[in-house]
Amino acid sequence: MSPSWLLTLTSLASLSGAITFNSIPDADLDTSQLGRVGIAGDFSGISLYQFEGQTEQPFNTNGSEQLLTRLPNGLFVSLLEADASIQTMCMFQGQVILGGNFTGLGGVQSPGIASFDPNTSTVTPIANLSGQVNSLLCDDSAGKVYVGGSFRTADSTNAITWLSSKSWASLPFAGFNGPVNSITKAPSGHIIFGGSFTGLGNTSTPRTPDGQVINLSTATIEADQGTSAAGFNDPKNIVCKTDGADGAGNTWLLQDNTPGAWRATFNFGFEPTKLRLWNTHQDGRGTRTWRFTAQPINGIMNFTYIDPATNENRTCTSECPLSNDPSVKFQDFHFVNRVGMNAFRIDVSAWYGNGGGLDGIELFQDDIFAFAVNDFNEPSCANTSTPSTATATGPWTVTQSGQSNSQYLSAQLSKPVASDAASIVFYPDIRESGEYIIKLYTPGCRQDNTCLSRGQISVSGTLTATGANRTMDPRILYQTNEFDKYDQLHIGSVDASSSSFRPSITMTPVPGQSQSIPGNDFIMVAQRVGFELINSTGGLNGLFEYDPSRATVDTSDFSSSAFIKLGSSFSNNSAVASLIATNDRTYVGGNFTSDDVHNIAAIDNSGKTVALSGGLNGEVLSMYLDGNQLFVGGRFNNTRDESTAGLTNVAVYDSSSNAWTPLGAGVDGAVTSIVPTTLNLSDSATEDVITLTGDFTHLLAFGDNEAAETSGFAVWVKSQSNWLQNLDTPVPLLAGILSTSLRVSDNQTLYAGSISSQVLRANGAATLSNGFGNFPINIQTPASVSSSSEGNLSKRASLLNSTETVAGVVAGAFYESDGRNVTVLGGHFTANASNGSTIYNLAFIDGADSNTVTGLGPEISEDSVFLSLAIQGDVLYAGGRVNGTARGSSVNGLLSYSLSSKSFNTQPPPLAGDSVVVSSVNVRPNTGDVYVGGSFDRAGSLPCPSVCLFSTGSSQWNRPGFELGGDVNCMMWSSNSVLLAGGNLTINNTAVFLASYDASGAHWSEFSGASQLPGPVSALTAANSERNQVWVAGTQSSNGSTYLMKYDGSSWRSAGIALDQSTVVSSLQMFTITGSHDSSDLIASNQVLLITGSIGIPGFGTASSAIFNGTTIRPYALTSNVDSTTGSISRIFVQNENFFTSSGGGMPLVFVALIGLAISLGLMVLIVLAGLALDRYRKKREGYIPAPTSMFDRGSGMQRIPPAELLHSLSQGRPGAPHV
To answer: ∠ CA 317-319-322 to the nearest 5 degrees?
Structure first.
């Protein structure tokens, strides 16, 4: 049965005709005979695997997001991956249009915008846009999509429309001179644009065009049919030669009377605007006609030029003329079309004199770039005192361009990353001061296979020599884009370069990033920055109203627009972040102030500005309207007049009462997005909740609710007026990012973001009974454990190393005696005791005392890690990496605690060794002997390596046999007298992986056939009720992969399944099932093997537990952590270990056979007795009488045993064991 808070959805696992999720058959584990069942692990949430598409993949922390929807059990599932954020979505003629700063969507290159077909789940790029899309407005009736952002396409900047004819159409005003952040349709039908712009218009060319010199000096220069004459045969002679002088070393010539070509190949791309050629006059030679072919398009370019003979404008293509007049120093040819190229050739088709040649060549462009690779910046011979350049510090190397525009620099930095580990400073050649758009270009990560190693960079800048805005605010950017992209860094004033000032852009790594990037290294790349001069109308300040019924825009009409007038009242450098339109008003939110409004306002249908109680005292970043309630997020803490406390970064405005109210007391950081969704938190219908995403770490305390930690994501439950995680009821786990949502149909909503979700929020431990439930305890991971993206499980290279990263609950036990009902949880965690104190690593939940939670107290080190628990009578024996004191005695490795008196017992003498770790504690059946296995050398002063026996009767350590050494990972009793131990062991100095101890003979030996095991055993369990068969899992010594094998009573057999290299098996346990599966030679049809840990299943990913039925393996339970790491399950613990007993009233076949035999014997005895009775009756009737008998002394025949022989036989019993 699913918990009550699951979404109330139809039984069909289909959200639309195409988006369908197949349900997974129930595992049918029979827990009815086990009593109470608990699950221990390192997780924040847990789910059964119920639908295809479910995963325990953590949410992304590298800036990438997914298109998401919901499974029928309420969990979020990814439909496709984006390499960056998806910021906006809308429905247009049956297609979902998605916009963001991604470059790839579902593996399809689609910079900034794409369409998704919900019927076929296919992605179609919307081509020819370069940049970032922030807002979309789909207008089906008009047949167009309004697109806003920071981009360039066609002849528009930052705003354009996409038509139903699948083509771009520029707006009458060709866009804005700054980014558009939001677009909405006002009640009037007019389109409202909000953003960071000050005017209409587009980018423009500098007043002095063709000002940037393209570097030919570092290109690969070659020639065809060049002369062999010394001093004239090198085609490089004419590069960086601007004096036009003829002569050896200055002139390049062709062979006599032969056409030829001059070729240049570059490691970067460019769009030239002007070609300058110096003709040669060497020995009467010279070039008469030529053509210019661009590569890689192999296109012949068109030019315009001034004929020096007539001073008239001319055009040319395949036969462009070059003057032979010595008074003409050079000629300029302007490209008619801007064409990208990375190579070109000049073919000389006719010549003067005996052959063609040139004295010089220069190529120019309007684009202002500064490259990280200095070979691509302006050459030293450029006619400028401030050529573009870059300075780099750190381990930078040149990386080939691949599919990118140019080669670039890469730096491989060790984690954790230091902010000064590498840097690069770009210095552009700015020829004129003005307003510029600054862009940072980043090559895609797919071409160099670095997507997993890339992360965040910080970009800052110095733009003007003086003034309040001389520096650019630092920007944090992701470099995880799959394909080439640019980020718009800044729009504002930039001073021209001079001898006393150089504008600059500085790039450094963001420090840390250990969690978001797997592996040991972080890779940072640097390619180029670009500066584009802005030309605009002015007259705007973040708001613009467009009437789509008008074909043109007249700036004289600005004064008639209520929106433009509102924007004009804002202070300088204002920005609008969000727009929402209703039937009677349009809400405007952002970073702006005026005499009447602060950061939020509304304009009603009459054009009147509504101040919303004066607004808020900080910027608004996101808004969501729900009826009369406007949810607002940003950076603020009160209203403008400080009249409403508790509005910390999030607030609600009620339009019916014109009043602001808090959500709790808010959160401790900025809220960047507000997205609605639904949950069912009771047996009633679903209810709406509000999700917040942002840069916050705590939900602030309010009322009876203490401050609560979170990772930038929170859920507000409107009906409860509280945060989801504050509710005292089972709730789901939701963690990550939600950027936006789109309702596609009545039963389908799409979301953008990256969410890790599980059915139940549970920290470290959960109950299992008709679904998962919570133990009444709040467990947290200790701060001393560092998280990694792979989670905290590790293969056991050594027991000591494996405990360094342990987090959560590792072991559990149930204790019931004389009315006491205690659950014991051990591991490495913190928890809150019922008395308000903090518990470390070992917790007791007393079910007979209102679930009172207690711990050990300060005697035991907070750094301890408990790995194994065993109860003998009323005494708990807890083993692990345990240190401290108890009742004045030292504790090391093993702790003894009385569950009846809730106090420490007299402790066993401490274990000793270089690094003491107890991995397994097992009580011998039907005795008081406690066997302890792990990594240690001594028990007190007694040499007792690997496994030691503590006799509870005598309170003494004893050494069980003398043969064993090494590290023990796991143990189990296969009978009342045989103990199995797995690990990296030795017997008489011979390596073994599975050992057997015969308690009756006090002797260790290698388990039967265990030499076939490929590596140390890390987990084992009985494979049948007789316990004479066993399953083991371990790590192969040869390659570190995980193996799974079964001993069937006579030989070892492999499970025959492949597991991913990263698999870590923590425990194995056989289960009886209520159903059946196809029988196999390994597992009966009514049983399965449950594997826990972090199980890497090929084609699926990791699962915290999996079920193996003898032929196939499938996920069983999935877990997640709130810190974007995968979870894991350590083990299942139960009240009654009746794993081979079925709930159907049946019993094992051996018992059936014994009962049948007893019945048969009983019938035989009855027959015999009946026969004897009949015989006696017959004899009596026939007159028989008994004959007399003589008695003899039975004792006289007894052999007497000599005392010496008796004593000798006693001495042959169990050898005396040393003891302390």
So the answer is: 110
**Residue for token digits 């919901």?**
70
Decide: 302 and 319 in contact? Cβ < 8 Å: no
> Minimal CA–CA distance to 514: which of 762, 786, 696, 716?
786
Whether the upstream peptide bond of residue 509 has omega within 30° of 0, thus cis, is no
Q: How far apart are the first and last CA of the chain?
A: 54
**DSSP assignment of 571-599:** PTT-EEEEEEE-SSEEEEEEEEE-SS-EE
Rounded distance between C-alpha atoms, residue 834 and residue 251, angstroms? 92
- Pair of tokens at residue 612: 């919303």
- Mean pLDDT in order along the chain per 10 residues (1220 residues): 38 50 92 95 95 91 93 92 96 96 93 93 93 96 96 88 94 90 96 93 71 94 95 95 90 96 96 96 96 95 95 95 95 94 96 96 95 95 90 96 92 92 96 91 94 94 90 93 92 91 96 82 95 81 93 80 93 93 95 93 94 93 96 96 93 94 96 94 79 96 94 94 92 95 91 95 93 92 56 57 84 93 96 94 96 94 96 96 94 96 95 95 95 96 96 94 96 96 96 96 95 96 96 94 96 95 95 92 95 95 96 96 90 94 57 61 70 61 42 34 40 39
Separation of CA 898 from chain center: 44
| DSSP track, 381-444 | TSS-SS--EEEEESSEEEE--TTSSB-EEEEEEESSBPTTS-EEEEE----S-EEEEEEEEE--
Question: Which of 1156, 1139, 995, 1120 has the alpha carbon at shortest distance from 1067?
Answer: 1139
What tokens were used for 1202?
């000599």
Which of 368, 389, 371 is closest to 380 using CA atoms? Answer: 389
Determine the Cα–Cα distance for residues 39 and 760; give it in Å rounded to an integer.
13
Report residue 881 as tokens.
Answer: 């990496």
Q: Is residue 713 within 8 Å of residue 725, measured between CB atoms? A: no
Give one word for 808, left, alpha or beta, with left for phi > 0 and alpha for psi -120 to 50.
Answer: left
- Cα(419)–Cα(399) distance, rounded to whole angstroms? 22
**Residue 788: which of 520, 515, 521, 517 has the closest Cα?**
515
DSSP code, position 801: H
Whether the bond between 296 and the residue before it is cis, its omega within 30 degrees of 0, is yes
Report the candidate in 962, 997, 1006, 961 with the shortest Cα–Cα distance to residue 976.
997
